[in-house]
Specification:
This protein is mostly helical. It folds into two domains: 7-207 and 313-490 and 518-554, Growth Hormone, Chain: A (Up-down Bundle), CATH 1.20.1250.20; 224-302, no CATH class. It has helices at 12-28, 34-45, 49-65, 67-77, 80-103, 109-141, 144-172, 177-198, 277-281, 297-302, 315-318, 321-353, 361-395, 403-421, 428-454, 459-466, 469-487, 524-557, and strands at residues 229-236, 241-244, 250-252, 258-265, 358-360, 498-499, 502-503, 505-507. A two-stranded antiparallel ribbon has the order 1-4. The protein has a two-stranded antiparallel sheet with strand order 2-3. The chain has a two-stranded parallel sheet with strand order 5-8. It starts with 11 loop residues before the first helix and ends in a 17-residue tail after the last helix. The model is unreliable at 207-302, 493-513 and 562-574 (pLDDT under 50). One of its GO terms (molecular function) is transmembrane transporter activity. This is MFS general substrate transporter. Keywords: Membrane, Transmembrane, Transmembrane helix. It is found in: Membrane.
């Protein structure tokens, strides 16, 4: 596209893509609203906490396992196809959950559970299809200097989704879970239609300087030996000695300037060019090939695009130690976040029921809804604020964006320590706010780090592979939480639940017979587990920041090719 036809950075086309992407993301993030209706689902269908966690994890599996597939499709074919998939999956998923809920407990409970798992998978996969399409379009529509902020704006809509839909449901249909699910089915699918017509990647102006990324290439041991030829241009002026005549006199190029190209395979840091007299005599007419060793930088150059940006994908990605570092950090942190998000409703119920002889399900559901809203709002803020922070660190402080990963890990750790100290449901919002902020910050920051370290050409596919990380942490931590909670739950056949300190009666009905009445003791062991995980992630993020800083310093020395030093052969006639 010519420069005259390329929209400016602040143009209606670019802003339309940004705000349409925000709308799609708002409809794509309802996976986080699961805990707003999960206890009611369990109560009506008489399923335990472990089974509820399996249904919730099906949505998470749908989100993260589909990432590489959706990423490859959008990298190759653009956003439209994925938006059609998102519309279909979200509509079918939520309507299926609503159908099972309305049918209530039946003789085919195993079939109903399987259907809920399938529908949960569809909602997660459909939401991720919508988000992947708009993230790809937004990242390609804004330059590196504003990329973290622009993608953070879109991701903030994804984080706000749970609050948005739960608020609508509680205002319009209070206490009606069936209508809530209907709102989710319609409200998540319609934005995908809007996005189909409005979301487009908008090319950047040609005048926009290429941003040279100085970090993120794998180390030498991570990459197979690859030889790549790079063209060096040597400008010779009137004082450059080029050759010696046969009679021993030196000849120079008059007042003309001449550009000579040398195709140099990279193999080491040292530049050694010792052309013979016959080679030098043909410089103005031919390209001469010489060997240059590039040591550790060999693999860096071999995986960069023509404009010096990294382009690591495929087997290079999977053999990169950087990829596995990010994968482990995301597994630990996202697993912590998903455990809390999927179970905060059950946590609030456990705290509400402890020592409360007048337990009221309606009152408990309000606390439950408030936790979901708190997590959603701070999730939104985290995604937005971390983008601004990362761009500020990069553009103003000249620090690697990876420094923000340490901030994110620290926030996660503080959230878990806060949750451990809380014993009253009225204080639970503090832990939910910190968890939402840290979780949103992680998913707001890591896509930009993925671009910086592994490149834009295969960004969505690479991010899809990184997004497999929450499957590991999410499954392990959430299932462990469900088992821990069930181990402390009241017996299923108990008509009256007796706690050592008081006799509890049912006012308004308990959410299920699998309720735990021990307060924080119902889940405290799970929080100890996630606290250790956050400590490990913090240590790894500090290591990543240190490595990135060293690479930035090293990269600044390699930004320009090494100067080619010519050896002059002085021949003396005997």
């Amino acid at each position: 596209m010519s420069e005259s036809k390329t929209p400016s950075l602040i143009s209606p086309r670019r802003l339309t893509t940004l705000f349409a992407s925000l709308l799609v993301a708002l409809g794509a993030g309802t996976n986080y609203v699961y805990s707003a209706y999960a206890p009611q689902l369990g109560s009506r269908l008489k399923i335990n906490h472990t089974q509820l966690n399996i249904i919730g994890l099906a949505g998470n599996v749908g989100v993260y396992s589909s990432g590489p597939i959706w990423g490859r499709i959008v990298d190759n074919r653009g956003p439209r196809l994925l938006l059609v998939v998102a519309f279909t999956f979200l509509l079918l998923g939520y309507m299926g959950i609503r159908h099972v809920y309305d049918a209530g407990p039946t003789a085919y409970d195993s079939i109903a559970l399987a259907l809920l798992v399938t529908c949960g998978f569809l909602t997660g996969s459909g939401g991720n299809a919508g988000l992947t399409s708009v993230m790809n379009s937004t990242a390609k529509s804004f330059p590196d200097q504003a990329r973290a902020t622009s993608t953070g704006i879109v991701l903030s809509g994804f984080g706000l989704s749970a609050f948005f839909f739960s608020t609508i449901a509680h205002v319009a249909f209070p206490g009606n879970t069936s209508d809530f699910l209907l709102i989710l089915a319609i409200g998540t699918s319609l934005p995908m239609i809007i996005g189909f017509f409005l979301v487009r990647p908008v090319p950047l102006p040609p005048a926009e300087p290429a941003h040279i990324l100085e970090s993120g290439a794998p180390e030498e041991e991570d990459m197979p030996d690859v030889t790549v030829e790079t063209i060096f241009q040597q400008e010779n002026n009137s004082s450059t000695r080029l050759l010696a005549d046969r009679d021993g006199t030196e000849s120079t190029v008059g007042h003309e300037q001449q550009v000579t190209d040398y195709v140099v395979p990279h193999t080491s840091d040292a530049v050694e060019l010792s052309p013979t007299r016959s080679d030098v005599a043909g410089l103005s007419r031919h390209r001469s090939r010489s060997r240059v060793a590039l040591g550790r930088s060999r693999s860096r150059v071999s995986v960069k695009t023509d404009d010096h940006q990294p382009n690591i994908h495929g087997k290079f990605l999977w053999t990169s130690s950087d990829f596995w570092l990010f994968f482990i950090m995301m597994s630990l942190l996202s697993g912590t976040g998903l455990m809390w998000i999927n179970n905060v409703g059950s946590i609030s119920e456990a705290l509400s029921a402890k020592g409360n002889p007048n337990y009221d399900q309606i009152e408990a559901s309000r606390w439950q809804a408030s936790q979901v809203s708190t997590v959603s709002i701070t999730n939104c803020l985290g995604r937005f604020l971390v983008g601004i922070l990362a761009d500020f660190a990069k553009n103003q402080l000249h620090l690697p964006r990876s420094y923000c990963a340490t901030v994110v890990s620290t926030l996660f750790l503080i959230s878990q320590l806060t949750a451990i100290s809380i014993g009253d449901v009225s204080e639970l919002w503090k832990a939910s706010a910190l968890l939402g902020l840290s979780y949103g910050s992680m998913f707001g920051l890591y896509p930009t780090l993925c671009i910086e370290w592994f490149g834009m050409p295969h960004f969505s596919e690479n991010w899809g592979f990184l997004s497999l990380a929450p499957l590991l942490g999410g499954n392990v931590f959430s299932i462990a939480f469900g088992r821990n909670l069930d181990a402390h739950a009241a017996p299923e056949d108990a008509d009256q639940v007796v706690e050592s300190s008081s006799q509890l009666t049912r006012r308004g009905g308990l959410p299920s017979t699998h309720q735990c009445f021990e307060g924080g003791e119902c889940y405290i062991a799970s929080l100890y587990m996630t606290t250790i995980a956050c400590l490990i992630a913090l240590g790894l993020s500090i290591w990543v920041s240190w490595r990135d800083r060293n690479r930035t310093v090293a990269g600044s020395r390699e930004k320009f090719p090494a100067e080619v030093v010519w050896e002059e052969e002085e021949e003396e006639e005997a």
